[in-house]
Design goal:
With 194 residues, the protein is mostly helical. Helix content is 79%, strand content 0%. It has eight helices and no strands.
Amino acid sequence: MSPLLAHAGLAHLGRRHEASALLWLTSALAGGLAGAVAVATSDRADVWQLAPALTVWGSSLVAAAACDAVTQRIPTPLVRQATVLSSLLLGVALVAHGDWRGLVLSGVCSIAAGLTMTMCWRYAGAGFGDVRLAFLGGLGLGHVTHEGLQLGLATVAVTTAVLAAVALARGGSRKTMIPYGPALVAGFLVAAAV
């Protein structure tokens, strides 16, 4: 699902020509990992209805990150549609199971992640697509553990540092723009998996 969503996202950006075999393969592998995270999280939460909802959530995150990695832009329609669909699927799954705590925590995590990235957009040079992506990413954290949050934040920091180092190694400077989407998505998936 992730490669198809990434292709659709590139089409929304008017950059369909950026699609490559490497992008297809990378988003397919990462989408498979997102599916594994969905199954692991639903198993840990003992709510099997979460698996389809989290699969849509994770696949959409991967597709948006793939678009960001290639174009340094996150397709707004992809993220908006994924946010609406993920919210509905997660809401139905959690309400059907009577998991009100998970439902509230999903909303709180979405708002917290979005507000954190809003501050990064305002003061640290992140793009507004990253803010939208953070709102989507927080939705899947309704059953996150403390260890998961810590590992997720560490993953974002390490991935961002690696991306910055690669940009510098390629002749960039401290002002060189890097895509934050892959780092955010890696952090969200790690946090949800643990």
